[in-house]
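cron nightly-structures :: item 1 of 1
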Amino acid sequence: MSSEASSVVVADENGAAETVGVGRYVEMEKDQESSAAKSRLSGLLWHGGSAYDAWFSCASNQLLYGLMGSWTAYLISVLYVEYRARKEREKADFRNHVIQWFEVLDGLLGRHWRNVGLAFNCTFLLFGSVIQLIACASNIYYINDKLDKRTWTYIFGACCATTVFIPSFHNYRIWSFLGLVMTTYTAWYLAVASLIHGQVDGVKHSGPTKMVLYFTGATNILYTFGGHAVTVEIMHAMWRPQKFKAIYLMATLYVLTLTLPSAASVYWAFGDQLLTRSNALALLPRTAFRDAAVVLMLAHQFITFGFACTPLYFVWEKLVGLHDCRSLCRRAAARLPVVVPIWFLAIIFPFFGPINSAVGSLLVSFTVYIIPALAHMITFRSATARENAMEPPPRLLGRWTGAYMINAFVVAWVLVVGFGFGGWASMTNFVRQIDTFGLFTKCYQCPPPPPLPFPGGGLGNITMPFNGDGLPPTPAPSPAHYFFRHHRHHSHHRGL
């Protein structure tokens, strides 16, 4: 009995000890499972740097800014119709006069709003034209790099100056149609060519790993859907301007079918290389299809230059008193001074991507988002104005209460995210480009020159640390550089 009791006790003690050990192990295992679950949940909802994360960021931003852009374009169209109806009651004659956004603000809200709107709108259109001129030089370089990008800017500045002969948006019918065809071809070429090319060796998809990168990209999208700075001028050229709001929404949806597939495909193929290349065409090998895309984009950018510049031409004509002049040659001669500062700025700041972001955050945010939303709220703040409005907000959106809530959201979001964080990120990036490449850089983001020969005649494995301007080369050479060297379509890169 005693021995059995002893063994039971021992067994009990061992069992008790074992039970405690198992209990601690189970607790540790549960902690590890809980930690793993939290890690998986964190990875699912918080930490993400894959290609899918980047696509989600781009798509959500594009949808958000596309919707906000369509909304503020609607607001501008409503304010234009309201202004024109009021002026026509006063027997105003617009047969030889193009109504512009700053005049709408002046008629509805007074001269202070006019001055603010005029300053933002003209500055935005000025730099919008600069961006198109830079893009022309950047694109043509990938077909013919015997001339550096700065020289191409001189040439295309002279070519774009011919837009002074296009009287108004009434005369852009064929150009608008061709521009749309060209953009469609280039967007789908980028998508298909990237998928056929496949992923480059060691491709990485870090996504926006820093706040600067995230908000810089977001402000580029803000700029993409902020093209309605010329809304009033386009509406004035329409026979039935009331249809513009539906047309703009359809146009935005069509643009999404171009931007999303091309952006996703190019990023899938090249990943983080896009962080140091402001022109995706530079990453694809030279083919007849790529050259066609470059040529078509050149023509499109020429047309877009005219679209951005024409409102500036109108402002200048009104300033010098020639807006109602019937002589096309006199008006064209008077418009030429507008092209000069655009040309000059494109030579000083040839940073296509960074200037895109800066314009989006600092100018587009106010010109086509904040000012229209505030102007709509203030114009219809009184009950009398709302009762007599030509176009009340749709019932689907909650009428006036819903419109005020949407306007307040647009103002707050764009002011904080677009102008605040976006302005900080874009200016940080812009200053960094100036520090790296300098002003008046001869060939921004061009491939580095070939290796220097040793005095004995052999080629060394040390490349030049600086380009011909005494400036550091671009951080990531384009794969097109190596393609050009193997295919020898010209002997070497000059003018770098």
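cron nightly-structures :: done
Residues 54-437 form a domain with the Amino acid/polyamine transporter I fold (CATH 1.20.1740).
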